[in-house]
Amino acid sequence: xxxxxxxxxxxxxxxxxxxxxxxxxxxxxxxxxxxxxxxxxxxxxxxxxxxxxxxxxxxxxxxxxxxxxxxxxxxxxxxxxxxxxxxxxxxxxxxxxxxxxxxxxxxxxxxxxxxxxxxxxxxxxxxxxxxxxxxxxxxxxxxxxxxxxxxxxxxxxxxxxxxxxxxxxxxxxxxxxxxxxxxxxxxxxxxxxxxxxxxxxxxxxxxxxxxxxxxxxxxxxxxxxxxxxxxxxxxxxxxxxxxxxxxxxxxxxxxxxxxxxxxxxxxxxxxxxxxxxxxxxxxxxxxxxxxxxxxxxxxxxxxxxxxxxxxxxxxxxxxxxxx
Length: 323
What we know:
The chain is α/β, with parallel strands linked by helices. It has two domains: 130 residues, NAD(P)-binding Rossmann-like Domain (Rossmann fold), CATH 3.40.50; 176 residues, Rossmann fold (3-Layer(aba) Sandwich). The chain is built from twelve helices and twelve strands. The strands form two sheets. A seven-stranded parallel sheet has the order 8-7-6-9-10-11-12, with helices on both faces. Strand 3, helix 3 and strand 4 form a beta-alpha-beta unit. Helix 5 packs across helix 7 and helix 8 packs parallel to helix 9. The chain is globular. The protein starts with a helix and ends in a 13-residue tail after the last helix. The N terminus is likely disordered.
């Protein structure tokens, strides 16, 4: 997180009102315990306060009908950076603010991207099964390709993508990227379209925001360009990847493998994907470390407290820029 953002969150975590009512949607027990220590929490759908001015939404959809049920709402607060489960235009139309906790999960998500890349390229889990199934005495595990010294394409060179690039340097990976626009502050190779980046890359990591413009942008054409030795890793959002096209590519050898932390209809994962031996699957744990979640909990509390005291959260999302 930037120095200014971190300082703002830290300074805002004081004078928290313990009596303000808030609604919580999809809030798990550990998070609920933190919120209940500072606010009067109503956990939906079992309990709801239509007069509450704040809704904390974790993962579950916040759409126009939901907003209509909460006429006093002034703020939707989410944990982490992503808010694709929130109908941002509906918030904007109603004058409701949106706040996230940016910058807090970047390092841990980038760590997991490296872990998925290595696991997929070196076939770590297949090797683990080979040993556990007692096959080692009879047969040597097949050689896998080397991980280091290859080309890494990053789709979305924002904070997470930049954190990934810094880590990749330790593995002697050459970096290329595709963004909506070139970043002159970074010296990596820029590609004006995603398919060209994929054709250049040995590894393609999806780290872009979920938006209408990026939905299914990693499609059959991009996967074909990545090629039969290529590995795809997605630590962004499931909808950025055309999941049926990816499954077909993995089944037919269009690409060599994949590492996926996110899925289009999570927590449901297609059985065909689960059955594949050339893909590593994790249950959306990218930012899910104890340290990161503690920081995000504190960030959400700070945003809510700031909204109650000043009418503005510490880290608001600029809804004017959301399509």
